Amino acid sequence: MLFSWKEIYVGFSNKTYNQIMNLLEDHKIKTKVKITTNRDRVTRNLVLGADPISMNTSGFAETNREYKILVRKADFEEAQYIISNQINK
Fold first, then answer.
1. 9-48 per-residue burial string, b: 16 or more CB within 10 A, e: under 16
2. CATH code for position 61
């Protein structure tokens, strides 16, 4: 049932991720989360046929994560409104 969910946030900021998750939780909006590390992305790219030399992970910090927050499509507009009115104020 992943098609009934829509991405509301994709980014690398842990602070923004936590702010959004707290807002959505406060408003009782259900979420799904996917967190991907650099190592996960590099591994996936290698499996898909990327050049291993260009995918060197030695300079990556393991704490550098990509956060994806998904909400139900039915809640997307409400979530978008809540986030846009609370974040960056």
1. beeeeeebbebbbebbeeeebebeeeeebbeebbeeeeee
2. 3.30.70.790
